[in-house]
Amino acid sequence: xxxxxxxxxxxxxxxxxxxxxxxxxxxxxxxxxxxxxxxxxxxxxxxxxxxxxxxxxxxxxxxxxxxxxxxxxxxxxxxxxxxxxxxxxxxxxxxxxxxxxxxxxxxxxxxx
Length: 112
Known about the structure:
Layout: H1 4-13, E1 18-25, E2 31-36, H2 39-52, H3 58-67, E3 72-80, H4 90-105
């Protein structure tokens, strides 16, 4: 059986999928586009804030309340692979990637 210290170290070594994703309202096609170095955790954070009724985006929260969780889907738009280089600012890279995705999708009028 692994020690607590070994489990912590193993967790630190894990590589989570990072990239740009959207949470889409199936009722009106509006989307919240975001990025993260750990997309699954970020999606869980958004969902928890929405369920608690305190999401920072009030229009998004309002639609979540009106249409319900079942009318929203999480979709990965672009994944960023980790390189071999050290000291890469992935947050900056993801922000740039997010801007490119928004421009490519041309969904300005559908953004939350």
